[in-house]
Structure formats: structure tokens, C-alpha cells
Input
Amino acid sequence: MSQSQDSQLPRRSFAWRVFHFLGSMEFAITMLITLAIASVIGTVLQQNQPYPDYVIKFGPYWFEVFEALGLYDVYSALWFLAILTLLVVSTTVCVIRHAPSMFKDMFNLRTHVQHKSLRSMHHHAHWHQPGELEHNTVAIRDRLATQGFRTRITEKGEDRLVSAMRGGMNRLGYILTHVAIIVICVGGLMDSNLPLKMAEWQGRLEIETRDLPLSQIPKESRLAVGPQAFRGSVSIPEGRAASVAYLPMRDGYLVQNLPFTIEVKEFRIEHYPTGQPKSFESDLVIYDPDLEQPLEQTIAVNHPLIHKGYAIYQASFGDGGSELTINAWPLFAGQAEPTELETKVFETRQMLWGDRELQLEVTGFRPFNINPDPTEDDPKNVRNFGPSIQFKLRRGTGEALEFENYMYPVERDGRDFFLSGVRGSPSEEFAYLYLPADEDGSIEGFIDFLHALHDEDKVAAVAAEMKDETLVSLQSQEDTILGNSLQRTLETLMAMFVRGGFDEVRDFIEQSLPEAERDTLAPAYLAMLREMLGRIYLNSLDLEPEEAVAESQLLFLQDAIDAVGTLPRYGSPVYLSLTDYNHIESTGLQIARSPGKNIVYLGCAFLIAGVFLLFYLPQRRFWAWLSRDGEQTRIDLAGMTNRNPREFDSYFEQIHTQLQSTQRNSAAD
Amino acid sequence: MSTQLSTLDSEKTSLVAWGWRLLMALSAIGLFGFYGDILDVYEVSIIILTAVGMAWLGQNWPGYRWHTVAVAVLSLIAVTLYGSDLGHAETSFWLNYLLASQSAFMWMSALFVMATVTYFGGLIFHSEFTEKVASFLTWAATTMGMIGLMVRWRESYLLGADIGHIPVSNLYEVFILFAVVTALLYLFYERRYQTRSLGGFVLLVISAAVAFQLWYTFDRQAHEIEPLVPALQSYWMKIHVPANFIGYGAFAMAAMIGVAYLLVERQTGKASVSRWVQKMPSLALMDDLMYKTIALGFAFFTLATILGALWAAEAWGGYWSWDPKETWALIVWLNYAAWLHMRMTKGWHGGPMAWWAIVGLFVTLFAFLGVNMFLSGLHSYGTL
Output
């Protein structure tokens, strides 16, 4: 839109040139494209993540470079706001420069045209008509008026000029679209967190980065109730209330006080028959001194509550500190009875199990787990695996293993197992321990078996039994040296198995047996170990002399041996089994106040109206110059448009034909 | 054409146009009569706006009138055949082979591909007749696609009253919407500009969408109707998504005209011009059409983005969150805004603008698909 006149008028002031540069189309286009490219950054780099994640991703050097550039919150970085500001300035200058002429053009019928210039227009025609000049003038004016044109007759000496225009509002389209951009940006600015940043620079506010209880958060990090915009969130457990919202700021947060208290009565998830969530709802009660009685309302996704200009949204949900009763079954020697403990989700406590001191951190609870059914081929067949708990066991050194235990046994190959997943870091998949359930569907059978394996007396008895039988079969009952050596070997094998599983037994065989004998002795060792394990189990069954071992019991034995073999890699001295729970959910509310919203919406309305006016309401002008030519009237018709020149070709012809026929008809009257 | 004839012609046209408007009005009134008790304000206004829009579209567009009547009649037949049992999709011959949404989409896919080939055939062999057949095939494909959408809408309710929803809720459904909308836009301009030579080019992009669609159906079983996640249970979806796809469709069409423009431009001025080029419309016409479609797309994309902002204010807690989808919508918008400024005020046209329109399609494609595939955010409904 700029006509660069600088070369012709070199004496323009500097300010004038800056003004023109800012309003130039080149500058505007540059800003549009710059903004587009700058916007990409924030979509490629995930915004507002915890800072440690960025450090891990980029390393300490680039982390600081990117932080300095504001890349973790690009859209409120200074340089980004500067681009936006420049775009708004450019648009504003453009509007200031062009709006006056556009306004004029909206109404101006251009009665000052010259006869000559009409004839040189791209669309023009002329013809002669009989009849009086004034009469023809009025007839043409009327005909154009019936076509929706605004018209005016101007006397041009002896001649007459009919000027006509329709679609003048097209120019309004220009003004509306450009003003809309300014209005939207101003409204957006009102809703931005720029005032908070200013307050932070002035030292009036301090971002809190520590995880503190609300009562300990210093007042430099708190925002009073006021008219300002904010967007924060708060998580409230069922039956509890809150009157603040937390505003995430860079690597920390601020606390916004609310002029009312929100109590959460209940949070609900409804499901479709297929298991997908159907609705998330919270029953809220708003206590506000300005209300005569508390306001009760249920909110859901897409259905927020708006109170006093504060909008309260259903944003997320989580555990609100569910109460759990847990049995800790010992996997170490010397104890077969579980210890019961009462805890809550998000609770941390020190535990002493056997000789190990560990910190138990309960991180989560799920009342049901709808997962693909492993016994079906189609992954779409899902099944409810029942409640589960997630927890971490942290050692004194700070390292922790993460566990996930299911409350009810899960069927695999026709047998039931208690599942416990374990992993060293959140980036790993859970590796699962399968503990076989006994005939009563309990973990007890397995724990008893394990306890028996830890019981040195029982192991010694079985070893002695086996030693005797072996000596008898070798017919060397008197060989005490062989006997003692066999007894020791058997006990050692069992001890190694319980300590390190089959892996340790194999390592032992590799390291201690001469290579020549390894191939023959190794299977014998393993067979003896299995025989011992089987006997210890059978002893525990208390079978009648003639009673055969059931198939299911043999399978249990096999599964139990497998489980004991993997226990050394499990990393926990106990198996935590959930026995009872009281599910308490918390609802995640997003709370926002955006005083600029209506301004933005006004801008949006301008934008839509403007765009459609601009594209679909062409401004069309016609001029008819009527002059006396002997007895007749000579008519010079010219037309122009600012949109759709192609369609205007036929439109001009149509108007031309109509005006000509008007003349004939009226002449015939 | 003499004045007399054109008057007669226009009188007949205006009679049909009034008849059409009346039909639309009666249809709307009929709906209010049957379902007045259960319609809310929003639904009433949607019906009125739809009737007005369809009356306006059909008043000078015979093809659209036939299309609408065919969609209405065949969809109603399908709904009747279904009754209240989804199982009829397999037992009823007509549903099984023609009208059940899956069958209709298969017909649509086949017809679109056939139409593409036929358009190019007409272009290469300079056959008006072949091109007319191609137009007919495109209309047939569009009609089958639209019937499929209508029937799928009904099918979703047969799955369960709480599962039913308008079929614009996932990537599978919007791909069909994209094909249908783009084809309708093309057919509109085909009639307006009296040229069928661009058909093959525009239908190429539709055929590509259809190919993706088929892969998506057979490889991912994406055609199954899924209930709506809570975030999508909003009346905004019904207007935000279609408005967006008018934008996407128009941008896609502009880019394909850009391709045609560049191919023709390369040959102009040469001694021997390829046979098909002789049949192509003038560069000026293609340039003009490119501008028209981008302007249309821009207008509807603006509308759709604003509708999206209004929805976001209700669902996500703010009208603008710089979510990747929002941001990419802004990028698309800024790109075409720059295009239109160059064209309208700087008078740029021809080759560079054609290239820019093609680049624009890739930007749009990223906003449509890429964001869902590569970036994470709130707007993750249409994941692959």
C-alpha cells in the first residue's frame, strides 16, 4: 500500500519516514511471516514443562541458552511480544493512513469525473437515444436505483452525470478486518500474564519454586483478589474445599486468592459399555459471602460454572489420598505372617522389613484397570483387572524402585497369579513378578512354601532324608565323609537357590566344578535341587499315605519354584497386597478470569464480518454521462469494480443492456 | 442469445429457484412439526441456517439440487431399512451393497478414482462427452459420500442412544468430509467457470485422500464407530469441524489449480504445446480461480478458527492457549493472509503465487495431520 515517494521528496522528516515504514505493506508482510515462523518454536518444543526435564533434554549449557531466550514459554517471551506489538503497530498505522480515504470511498459517488476519463475506462459503452435529456437522466437514475445502487445526478454545464455505486460497505470490510486485529490483540493483552511479569521485575512478586503447603507460601508469591486476568488450577479432594488457584509460572507458581470457597462434594466418571470414559463431573458448592446461600452446581467437561466472572472448568482428576489397608507379606527369612499397615495415597513412611530399612511412598491407586485381555487374541477385548496400587521403595541412598501391584489374581494359562510390576525408572516398562495363588485364591500358600525354603531345619531334614536314600542306593551307609559332603552340598544348593535363584546355582556349577565333570554333574545337581523343593512342598501338604498329588498342586509347585527363582531380581523384601480401600478422588479444576474476553470476541465479530464484506461484497461503480447530440441524447456509460473483474464483464453488459432497454421502453411511453 | 430467449430462460430459472426455496422452507417446517418438542434453540437455529444455506446454494445450481434430493431420499431409505437393528446392514441387500455407511464410502472411493481417471481422459483426448461423464461420476461419488455420512450418523445412534453423534469426530470421518466438501467446491466452480479441464487436478488430491482413507480402514480398522470422549461432547463440534473443512478443501483446490497453472505455464510460448494443454483454461482464469478459492478458504478458515476459540473457552478454560493445533491454525491463517495481501494490494499473480498456494497446502496439511502425528497437545482427537 505504500507508494515509496522518498526519492522524490528527500526532505521528509525522520518521523514521517518511520511512520511510513511501519505502515508499509512490506513491513506488514514481513511481520506476518515472522510471527508465523516464531510461532512454530513453541509447537515443536513442549512448553511449560518442569525445568529438570529440559536440563535432561538439552544439557546444562543449552538449557541456559534456551532459558535466556525464553523458549520454555515462547508466547510470553519479550521478543515474541515485541513481534506481536510491531504487527499491531503496523496494522494501526495502516488503518490510520487508509481509513479516512476508505470512509470517503464508502460514500463518495465520485461526481467529479471527467467525460474524457469515462471513455478511457476499461468497461465503457455509448449509444444514442431519442428523447429529452432530463427525462433520460431520471430514467437511467431510476433504473440503476432499482438495481440497488446509490445514485446522484450532477449538472455538468449542459450535460448531466449520473453517478452510481453499490457495495460501498466493501471498504468497511477493510476497516473492520484491520481494526479487528488491533482489538483482538488488545483484548488478548488484557488477558495475558504481562502484568505479573512486570510485578516480578519490579520485585513486587516472587515465583515460588518449592513444594510448600498453602499456609507456608510467603505473601510475595500470593496475588490478592482483584480485577486482573489469570488462569490457574487447583486440585481438590472430595469432601474438601479450596479458595485459591495456582498459576504456573516458568519453573514455579504463584497463588491467586479467590473471593469465594469451592467445595467438592463428589467427583464422578461415567463410562460407556465399552469402557471408554463418557463424562467427568464434579459436584461443587460455592461459598461466597455475597451469596445468600451457597451455590450448588455440577460442572462437567464443556460445561463450566461461571461465577462473578470467574470461570471454573473441569480439567482433570486424580487421587485425593485414598485410604488403603495393605498386608506386607515377608519374602525374607524368619517370618511367615504378614504385617498389616494403614496408609494413604501420597503418604510416605519409614519401614523396617527384616533387616532392611526402606521408605515406602504410595504414589497412586486405581480402583479398576481396564486392559487388553491377555487370553484373547484381539487387543480390543478388554477386561477389568481390578484395583491396583502404585508405590516406590526408596533406599537410604536415595535410589528407588517403582512397583505396581494388583489386588486380585489374574488368570494366565488357566492358573491364577498375583501380579507385581517393578521398574527402576519411569522410562522403563514394568517387569512383572507372577506369584501363584493357592487353592483358596490366596497368596498364603506361596508365602508358606517360601518360608519353608528359608527354614534351615526343614531344609536340613529333607537333605538328610535324601542323603540317606542316596547312601542306601549306593550301599555305603557307613561312608560318613560322603554323607556329610552330600548333606552340605544339598543345603548349599538350597541356600544358593533361595538367595540367587537358578542363576546363582548355575554360576556355582560353572565356577566350582571341574570342567570334565560339569556336563554329568550339573543336571544331577539341578535334579537334586528340584527333588528337595518338591519334597519340602509335599511335606507341607500333609497328604494321606495313599493319596496322590493332584495335577493342580504340581502346577502350583512349578509356578512357585519359578516365582522363587525370580524373587532375587524383584528388589523388595515384601510383597504388598491390598486388602481394603476407601477410594477418595480429587478433581482438577481450572479457574480463569479473562476480562479481555468480550473485547476479543468483539474483534472476532469484526473480523468475520470484515472478511466476508471484503471478499463477497464487490464495490461497483457506474457513471452515465448524458449530453445533447442534436435531437438525441448521447449516453456514455462506464463502470468499474474492485473485485471479480471477470464477473464484472458480464455484469457490465447486463447493466448496459438494461439501461438501453429502459430507454426504449420509456421512449415508447 | 437473443434477449427474448434469455428472458424466457431466466423466468423458468427463477420459477425453479422459487420452487427450491419453498422446498427447503417446507423441509425445515416439516422438521419442526415432527420434532419440535425435542429441539432446543441451538438445533432450531442450525436447521434454519442450514435451510437458508441450502436454498441459496441450490437456487442457481441444478446439480446441487439433484444431489440434495438424492442424498435425502436414499438416506431416508437406508434409515427405514435399518429400522432399529444395526444387524440389517448385513441382511438387507440394499444396505449391504449400497447404502450402509461402509458400502456407501466404498462406492464413493471407487467413483472418485474413476472420475479422476475420466477427467484426465477427457483432457487428453479432447472429449467433451468424456468430461461430462467425469462430472457425473464426481457428482455420484459426492452423493454416495454424503449418504454414507448421513447413514453413519444414524448408525451411531443405533449403537446406543448415548453413543450417537455427528460423524465429524475423528480422522476417519473428517477425511470423508474433506473428500465430499472439496468435490462440492470443485463442482461449484466447474459450473461457475464453465470448465471441466481442471477436474482431474482437483480430484487428484481427493483421490489421495481416498487412498489414505482405504489404508486407514483396512490397516487400522479405523472405520468403527467410537463413542465421543467428553471433550468432544459439544454442539460447537458440529459447526467448527465443517467450517474448517470448507477451508481445508478450498486451500487444497487452490493448490491443485496452482499445480495446473505451473504445468500450463511451462508450456506456453513453446513451439509445440502438448495436446492436453490446448484444452486447459487460460492462465488468467486459473489465476483468478486460485484467488477465489483461497479467499473462500480464508473466510471459512477464519470463521472456523474463531468458532474453535469460542469452543476452547468453554472446554479448555481459555479462548487461546497456544496449543500446537491453535498455533498451527494461526500459522496457516497468517500464511494465507500474507498471500491475499500480496495479491490484493501488491498485485502479485501467476507463477510465484501458484508456488505459494502449493506451499500453503503443505502448511495446511501439517496443521491438519502433522500436528496430530508429531506434536502433543490438547487437540489430540484425530491421532493416527
Residues 9-60 of chain B form one domain. Residues 195 and 338 of chain B are 29 Å apart (CA to CA).
